[in-house]
Amino acid sequence: MEKIKIEKLSLVFGKGKSKALKMLDQGKTKAEILEATGCNVAVRDANLTINEGEIFVIMGLSGSGKSTLLRCINRLIEPTTGKIFINDEEITRMSDKELLNIRRTELAMVFQHFGLLPHRTVLSNVAFGLELQGIDRAERDKKAEETIELVGLKGYENQKVSELSGGMQQRVGLARGLANTPEVLLMDEAFSALDPLIRSQMQDELLLLQEKMQKTILFITHDLEEAIKLGDRIAIMKDGVIVQVGNSEEIITNPADDYVKSFVENVDRSKIVTAGTILFKKPKLARLKKDGPAVVLRTMRDIGVTSLPVVRTNRTFLGFVKIEDVVELKKKEIKTIESIIRDSVMTVNPDATVEDMLPLLSKTNLPIPVVNEDNHLLGLVTPTSLIAETTGKDKEEINEIIQKAIEL
Amino acid sequence: MIIGQYIEDGVNWLTDNFSGMFDAINTGMSSLIQVIESVWIGLPFYVTIALFTGLALWKAGRKNAILTLVGLVFIYFTGFWEETMQTFSLVLASAIIALAIGIPLGIWSAKNKTANSIIRPILDFMQTMPAFVYLIPAVLFFGLGTVPGAFATIIFAMPPVVRLTSLGIQQVPEDIVEATKAFGATPRQLLVKVQLPLAMPTILAGVNQTIMMSLSMVVIASMIGAKGLGEIVLQGISQLRIGLGFESGLAVVLLAIILDRITQNLGNKQKNE
Fold first, then answer.
1. Whether A109 and B179 lie within 8 Å, measured CB to CB
2. If we measure between CA atoms, which residue out of A202, A133, A213 comes closest to residue A178?
3. Which ipTM did the prediction report?
4. How far apart are CA A373 and CA A371, in angstroms?
5. Which residue has the higher pLDDT, A278 or B193?
6. What would be the CATH architecture of the domain defined by A276-407?
7. Contact (CB, 8 A) for A26 and A201
8. Model's pTM, two decimal places?
9. Do B193 and A109 touch (CB under 8 A)?
C-alpha cells in the first residue's frame, strides 16, 4: 500500500520563480535556468511513491537536492509546484494547523546534526515531541522511557545530552522521533556525522528496530553502501532530478546512466547480486522418466558439457548425472538413468548472493542449481558467471584464464 | 543649527501636546520608585546586608559573598547608607523598566527583519549620543527630580539588553530550530521552549550590562535632581571637597562591583565552590 506519494514536485530558489518554472516545463537545463533567471532549481519534477512499511532511501551527492526534497514532505521547505500526499491526504494543501498536527503525529524527523536541546536531559529531549502536543508530564515521561529503552539508552535518562557521544546523541534523536509513534520517519543523513564503526552499528540497530516496528522510513544518504544496506528501494538523485528508482540489485546490475554506473562501480557486488539475477534460465535437462542414457549422452555432446541436471517432469530437481556414468550405463544397456543420479548436491534459492555461493565452488565443479521453495529447478549458476560477478571481468576473459589453467 | 531648531520645536511640541501623558508617566514612575525606595530605606541596614550577602553566596560563590559583605559594611561606615539605597532603588526601578521594554524589543528584532532594520540604527544612536544629552529632554518632559533621572537612565541603559537578546536568539543553532519546527512547534513554543532558554546566557549578559549602565547613568542623573550617591559626588565637585568626592565615589564603585558579581552569575543554578 502506498504511504507517501510525490507528484511532479519542483522546487526553485530565488526571485522570478514563474519564469524559471516555465523554462523547466520547456525542458531547459539547470544551468540555463540559472543563467536566464538567477534561480536555482533544487528539485525538478520529482515523482515518487513510497510504500507502507518500507525503508526508502534517497541517495545523492551534496547539492543533489535530496535533503531539500525530504524537507518538502513535512514542509520545512515549501515546494514551488507539485503535490505531496500522505495516506491520500494532500500535505501541500494543508492549513498551518493541520500541518502542525501532522508534524506532531505522523511525520517524525531525525537530523544529521541531531538538533537536540543541549540544556535538557535525555528524557525531556525524548519527550519533547509529546510535550509540544500538550500531553501531561506523567504520560509523556512514561512513553519517553519506553522509547529510551527501545533504543538502548536505559540508565541515561537524566544525563544532559551535551554530555553524550555522537552515537548516543543520535539514539536520543531517534528515540525522540519514535516517541511520537509516527507512521513515517524522515531521516536526513541520520548516521553521516558518526564514525564508521558506530555508523554501521546504528544501521544494524535501525534494521532490527524496523523489523519490530514496520514504520515507513525515508532515509537520506550520500553513501551508496548505506543505501544498499538499509534500503528496500533506492532512488538516486543528481542535480535535483531523480535518475533511477529500484531495489539495490536493479540499480547495481542495471544502472540507468553513466552517473549511476560511476557510483555502482566501487560497490562490493558479491553481497548484492543474487542467484536469481545471474542464473542461466534454460539449461538443457535430463528428464528422469523420458530420457534414457542415449538421449542424455547426445544432449551432452551437442552442447559440450560433462554433466546434466536431472528433473522430474514437473521440474523437481533430483541431482546431476555425469558423462562417465552415462557411458557406463549405456554399455550395460540399462534404459533409465535413475541409478546414476548424484543427489548430494547443494542447491541454493534465488535470493542467495554471490558471496553465499562462492564457497560452494570449492566443493564441486558442477554448476550450482537454483531452486524455488518447492524444489523446482529455476536455472543454473555457472562457476564462470560467479567469478565474473566477483572479479568484474567478462566471461570470455575468465574462460580464457580457465583454459590456460587447465593446459598448465 | 537648523537640526537643533527642529529638535527643539519637536520637543516643545511634545511637551505642549502630550503633557497629560508625561504627567501620567511621571506619577507612575515616581510611585514605583517610591515603593522600591521605601522598602530598601525602610529595611534595617543589617537585614539588607544579610540579604545581599545571602544572594551572593547562593549565586556567585563564597568569595563574592565575602566581597559583598565587606563592601556593604564599608559603605555603611562611610555614612552614605541612605544615599546608597536611594541610588540602588533608582537603578532597580530603571533597570526593571528598561528590561521590560528591552527584552520584548530584542525578541521582536530577532524575529522580524523589518523591525531589526528600524531598531538597530535607533540603538546605535542611543548608545553613542553623550549621556548628558538625555538629561535635557528629560527635564523638559518631567521637570527636575528623580523621575527625569530614571527616564534618562532607561534610555541610556536599554540598548545592551535589546542587542544581546536579539543576538542570543539569532545565535540559537539553525538545526535545533529546524528540529523544533519539524516536531510541530508553534512559533510561541519555539520561542518559549527553545530560543529563550538557549539564548538565556546571552540575555543575562545583556541584563548585567543594562544594570551596570543604569548605575553609571543614575550618578550622572543627579545633575537634574535625582537623589542618591550622585548628589554627594556633585557636592564634592562643586565644593571642591576631594575627601567627600572620593568617599561617595568609592561607594558607587563598591555598589557597582557587588551588583556586577551578583548579576553576572544570575544564570548559574548554584555555586558553592
1. yes
2. A213
3. 0.75
4. 7
5. B193
6. Roll (3.10)
7. no
8. 0.77
9. no
